Amino acid sequence: MKRFLVVVGGLLACWAVVAGVEERLEARQLLEAFFTEQGGWEQAIAALPSDIEDQMRICIACHGEGGNSPNREIPSLAGQNPPYFVEQMLVYQRAARYPEMMHLLSEQMEREGILAAALYFAIQPRRVMGEVDHQKGQQGAALYRAYCIHCHGEDGSGANPGYANLRGQRADYLSISMRRFRDRSERRVSHEMAVATLGLSDQQIEELAHYLAGQ
Ligand code: HEC
Ligand code: HEC
Q1: What is the CATH number of domain 16-122?
Q2: Which of 62, 86, 182 to mutate to test the pocket of ligand 1 (most atoms within 8 A of CB)?
Q3: Using a 6 Å cutoff on CB, does residue 208 contact ligand 2?
Q4: Would you say 182 and 197 are in contact if contact means Cβ atoms under 8 Å apart?
Q5: Buried b (16+ CB within 10 A) or exposed e, 113-143
Q6: pLDDT confidence band for 1 (50 / 70 / 90)
């Protein structure tokens, strides 16, 4: 029985890893095809529908004006990297991430709507929301360089845009998010982040969060 559970557990872990990778690849392919069709990034931005802001009203209701979140439980979308944004919307379509509301919304969106939302939020300037404790942040700098920099980049904006832009994200949201990964919460499964946060204390997570929020 125990052995069976280990095998099933292993298979589930593999599935989680593969599921994430699949969505990352799909997001990249969708964006590449979209930019080819539109003739490039600038053309794609220029071609956004003129009422895009109205179309995004429902998102803004939670994610804040210009995608800058007024709520610690909700991430800012302003300045988010499009490949990561699209990947997460695909994850939501498959109901593989909390909250349920995001699953319901993403399910109703066509691929084109998701790409337009990704571009619209990517070009909004990210503002600092919530408290930033720069003293705590200083303590996080060395940890960040040791454990995070090769994926999230020199300044947190994503060494490869397939990774999240964490630079200037709300510190309280970053903390909540990292603790979920470390504690292997079912609300969000990421093998890479479970490994990256393994063994971090709550205090170290706070320091990392304030470091990133202050970048
Ligand atoms: C009812 C509130 C609510 C609404 C409305 C809403 N969201 Fe969200 N959204 C959330 C929450 C909560 C999270 C995830 C928080 C977490 O993982 O801790 C989230 C996460 C996301 C993420 C992942 C961001 C990241 O940094 O990982 C994207 C992308 C996103 N939402 C896009 C949208 C879009 C596009 C719309 C409009 C179609 C929208 N959301 C509407 C609450 C909302
Ligand atoms: C091996 C690459 C890798 C490393 C190293 C890594 N991350 Fe991540 N990070 C990811 C991936 C992939 C995701 C998206 C996970 C998902 O799909 O749910 C992510 C997501 C996150 C998120 C959630 C962002 C959001 O908008 O919801 C935070 C916060 C984060 N990482 C912080 C860190 C910190 C701090 C470190 C260092 C302790 C770190 N990461 C190290 C790959 C990495």
Answers
A1: 1.10.760.10
A2: 62
A3: yes
A4: yes
A5: ebbbbbbbbbebebeebbebbeebbebbeee
A6: very low
**Token pair recorded at residue 62:** 């939670």
Residue 126 CB less than 6 A away from ligand 2: no
In short, whether 67's Cβ falls inside 6 Å of ligand 2 is no
Contact at 8 Å (CB) between 131 and 92?
no
Residue owning the nearest CA to atom 29 of ligand 1: 85
Question: What integer pLDDT is reported at residue 21 of this predicted model?
Answer: 82
Q: What is the CATH number of domain 134-213?
A: 1.10.760.10
pLDDT for res 19: 53
Q: Is pLDDT of 22 > 70?
A: yes
The reply to whether ligand 2 has any atom less than 6 angstroms from the CB of 177 is yes
Q: What is the pLDDT of residues 68-99, one digit of tens each?
A: 999 999 999 999 999 999 999 999 999 999 99
What residue's CA is closest to ligand 2, atom 3?
A: 151
pLDDT tens digits for 144-162? 999 999 999 999 999 888 8
Does any ligand 2 atom lie closer than 6 A to the CB of residue 190? Answer: yes
CA 16/CA 20 separation, integer angstroms: 6
* pLDDT tier for residue 6 given thresholds of 50, 70 and 90: very low
CATH 1.10.760.10 maps onto the chain at 16-122, 134-213
